[in-house]
């Protein structure tokens, strides 16, 4: 429940103006939250100038007072940081610390979700990464064989991937560590699932940027996603809830490559109306 401390409240009405669902009213010069339409976005906590709003549904230790030195970042620095990030396919033989993994997930936890659903779930694979790799490569091998045995105008587009999946599976069976074209010998995989793929996608983008601040590199693995997405055996291994969709797979580790500059991109496709 959302609550207002009447002793602190100064009746400024800022929480009322910022409440999208109109769930707050002013009674005798004090704000009162009806808790009828409220979907717990907690904007009232953030906007109150005297810290009069609280809730018993979340951990209020999450709340931090704004401080310019700790919260601000220049536009150009942020844009350059985004431009400099790269998809990493070379990783060092070095474990990713648990506190860094938790910090990456923290970035996702505070990413906005539609209707404040907060529907994200995370599966961290590190101790059982070889077993997970085997499950994925077995599925890709199966998919690759099917594609190559059923070539048509559609499957021909992914023929080269199908051939690669068979090779990757064989490399794994031969224990060819230097030819790991799935996880590239990274020590950690984080899988993000949610009821909304938009929510998971937005969160995953923030996770990648946060990982880069920790000197880590990330690869969004489409191959792993393709194998795991609708496979019951793999979903059971990952313990993904039935009502949630597996949306992204982040391969994470310490990069074994150094980049010296950003790269060019296509011009933005913009329509001004």
UniProtKB/TrEMBL annotation:
InterPro entries: 4Fe4S_Fe-S-bd (IPR017896), Nitroreductase (IPR029479), Nitroreductase-like (IPR000415). It holds the Pfam family Fer4_10. Keywords: Oxidoreductase. The keyword Transmembrane helix does not apply. Gene3D superfamilies: 3.30.70.20, NADH Oxidase (3.40.109.10). Residues 1-19, 29-58 form the 4Fe-4S ferredoxin-type domain. The keyword Oxidoreductase applies. One of its GO terms (molecular function) is oxidoreductase activity. Belongs to the nitroreductase family. This is Nitroreductase. It comes from Halanaerobium congolense. The lineage of its organism: Bacteria, Bacillati, Bacillota, Clostridia, Halanaerobiales.
